[in-house]
Amino acid sequence: MTSSPAESIRPFRIAIPQTDLDDLHDRLDRTRWPDQLPGTAWAYGAPADYLRELVGYWRHTYDWRAAEARLNEWPQFLTTIDGADVHFAHVRSPQPDATPLIITHGWPGSIVEFLDVVGPLTDPAAHGGDPADAFHVVVPSIPGFGLSGPTTQTGWEAGRIADAWAELMRRLGYERFGAQGGDWGAAISRELGRAHPDRVIGVHLNLLPGAQAATEPTAEELAELTPEERERTLTSWRRWAEWSREGTGYAVQQSTRPQTLAYGLTDSPVGQLAWIVEKFREWTDSQELPEEAVDRDRMLTNVMLYWLTGTAGSSARVYYERAHASGRAAAPELPSPTPTAIALFPAEIQLPLRHKAERTENLVRWTEFDRGGHFAAMEEPDLLADDVRAFFRQLREKNAG
Q1: Are 106 and 146 in contact (CB under 8 A)?
Q2: How does residue 278 score in pLDDT terms, banded at 50, 70 and 90?
Q3: From CA 288, how far away is CA 113, in angstroms rounded?
Q4: Does the active-site annotation cover 320?
Q5: Which of 110, 221, 347, 369 is a Cys-bridge partner for 285, taking CB atoms 3.0 to 4.6 Å apart?
Q6: Is 183 among the residues known to form the active site?
Q7: Helices (DSSP H) in 247-291: which residue ranges?
Q8: Of 120, 140, 116, nearest to 130 (Cα)?
Q9: In terms of Cα–Cα distance, which of 151, 197, 150, 199 is closest to 173?
Q10: Domain ranges of the chain
Q11: Considering the chain, what is the average pLDDT of its residues?
Q12: Contact 109, 302 (CB under 8 A)
């Protein structure tokens, strides 16, 4: 992959036309609401009473311009890589010798996930940390998502995105760098370490795809484990079985017919909201409402990046590309030689198992937390940032020794 004048890095600033916001408000005012069976709560999906209240807040209280200004505090850019326009923030540390780090969101997330971790990572001294743990942080939007979308070509799965990230970091002058991610960001970050081990210092993940108990463990398998790992394996299997039975509808649709889904989500802001907010409720460390785990305005800002860019369909295509992949992209379980850390948050939908992770990862750090879920950077930003700093400090000290 080579760069050219047409692929230069261009400054970017978010500036949504007021007409787009007026159109959103008009659509919210004219929402055609479905019925709901009484007493079903979240069992059939996002409940109408909760969504009506949230839509009212979105329409009359939520302030996009404040969110836009907050995002624009980050220096942002566009560049064209492998035929796709890639949007990214590049926040340099005040420490000139800071470690370069690329952090990647997933679905249904966005760069909004990292608003509370970039500061502690780039300027740890200002957040009670050690300046030696500082990072120059690159926060890209995945091709097809938000400000990097929509894509215009097929084939944008995790391996191709990882190659694009390697090129992005090269363009920024970072020959060696670290990677961090959860959800699709975990798949992409892991692939970065697997495909580019000469350049990736270490990979920090808060999800490891495929490391859960995907089949019911046999008595023989359990007998080989410690009591603690045995209980974790059973918990992982129960959680995976429940999720496979009740929680995979979105993935099946996005893996098979993302275009059909796109019409409804691109035309209806309430449809887009429901499609995303249901996952924030199901995948976070919350009991009743997603706002117990993540800030309501922050969650709406995340939804806005999908709505305002019309990328419901193009973001879903990453599922289709993985499901229909061949060659390298069809073998995500191939071993990675890059030093890897796993941060385990207890409400994660895919509960990884250490003995499985050790089969495919160069696992050098395993941290278990007592709170937090799938959207770790939003739910527990301090825990995540501290663990990222500790992991790369560990690598530095080992290399120095």
Answers
A1: no
A2: very high
A3: 21
A4: no
A5: 347
A6: yes
A7: 249-256, 258-267, 269-283
A8: 120
A9: 199
A10: 45-400
A11: 95
A12: yes
Structure tokens at 18: 């007021």
Per annotation, catalytic residue among 62, 374, 386, 387: 374
CA-nearest of 373, 336, 89, 110 to 203 is 336
pLDDT at 172 over 90: yes
Whether residue 150 has a cis bond before it, omega within 30° of 0: yes
Question: pLDDT by residue (tens digit) across 355-399?
Answer: 999 999 999 999 999 999 999 999 999 999 999 999 999 999 988
The 3-state DSSP class for residue 321 equals helix
204/188 Cα distance (integer angstroms) = 11
Is 105 considered catalytic here? no
One-letter amino acid at 195 equals: A
Residues 6 or more apart whose Cβ sits within 8 Å of residue 149: 141, 143, 309, 310, 311, 314, 315
Residue 177 and residue 161: Cα distance in Å, rounded?
16
Query: 3-class SS at 327?
Result: helix
Would you state the structure tokens that stand for residue 85, as one six-digit string? 């326009």
Whether pTM > 0.85 for this model: the answer is: yes
In this structure, which CATH number among 3.40.309.10, 3.40.190.10, 3.40.50.1820, 1.10.340.30 belongs to the domain 45-400?
A: 3.40.50.1820
In DSSP notation, 158-177 reads HHHHHHHHHHHHHHTT-SSE
Strand (E) or helix (H) holding 90:
strand 84-91
133, 183, 285, 297: the catalytic one is: 183
| Rounded-to-integer distance, Cα 165 and Cα 155, Å | 15
